[in-house]
């Protein structure tokens, strides 16, 4: 495996060869040097604004991101907001009853384990106010 040094803004350096990528203008996160494997990244959903009630913010954050199997995404939020992993139908209809997994700890780290579309919504009425995310995960990068 090849390793690279990156100058990144990061909040939670990870000991498993990953770095949390953030907005370069985000004063909330500290700057650091992180060593990471060339094949996996950790994306903080929404960068400095996190997982919140702004659909346009979440959509614009995701538009320029590339996700691969092996990457992780981190949701940072204030409970009672939660993260629900759902199927496409539940995503489109904000169905919070039909979820695959639910998290509510305020900092949820999910590894992307399979390629294809993946869907996340906010629970307890938050989805209907715009807290939802659709991403497309590409196959794992080869070495």
Q: What does it look like?
A:
It is a single chain. By secondary structure, the chain is mostly beta strands. It has a single domain, classed as Cupredoxins -  blue copper proteins (Immunoglobulin-like, Sandwich). It contains 2 helices and 11 strands, in the order ββββαβββαββββ. It has helices spanning 55-63, 88-93, and strands at 3-10, 20-21, 30-37, 42-44, 67-68, 72-76, 83-86, 99-103, 107-111, 116-121, 132-138. A 5-stranded mixed sheet has the order 5-11-10-7-8. The protein has a 4-stranded mixed sheet with strand order 2-4-6-9, with no helix packed on it. The protein has a two-stranded antiparallel ribbon with strand order 1-3. It is globular and about 40 Å long.
């Amino acid at each position: 495996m090849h390793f690279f040094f990156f100058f990144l803004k990061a909040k939670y350096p990870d000991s498993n060869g990953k770095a949390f990528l953030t907005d370069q203008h985000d004063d909330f996160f500290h700057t650091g040097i992180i060593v990471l494997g060339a094949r996996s990244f950790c994306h903080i959903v929404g960068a400095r604004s996190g997982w919140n009630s702004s659909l346009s913010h979440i959509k614009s954050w995701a538009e320029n991101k590339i996700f691969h199997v092996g990457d992780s995404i981190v949701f940072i939020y204030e409970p009672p907001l939660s993260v629900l992993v759902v199927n496409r139908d539940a995503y489109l209809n904000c169905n919070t009853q039909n979820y695959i997994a639910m998290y509510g700890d305020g900092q949820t780290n999910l590894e992307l384990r399979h390629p294809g579309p993946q869907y996340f919504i906010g629970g307890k009425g938050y989805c209907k106010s715009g807290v939802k995310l659709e991403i497309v995960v590409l196959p794992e990068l080869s070495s």
